[in-house]
Amino acid sequence: MRLAKVIGQVVATVRSDRLGMDKLALVKFIDQDGKEESSVLVAADRLGAGEGEWVLVVSGSSARMSVDGTGQAPVDLSIVGIIDEVTSGSKTWFQKYQRNY
Questions:
Q1: Which of 24, 46, 57, 101 is the most exposed place for a label (fewest CB within 10 A)?
Q2: pLDDT given for residue 50 in this prediction
């Protein structure tokens, strides 16, 4: 699994039947410093992640299995989780909601 940030959506109404009608998200991977990497990728999104959200993505056969359970979907990247918080030691990389203590 890798961390990524949703930066947009891709609309493709004409597509392979094996791809299904899942939403397609435009994502950038997040590096170890919490910064966006330069590559832009498209990920299948069954969860409905919104622009600006951090997500967990899987690739390869894990991505294909997450879409239809058969491993036959023509997918290389799939969103499998929407992140609420990322921490490492005492450092918080990302927090979806501000905590009010």
A1: 101
A2: 94
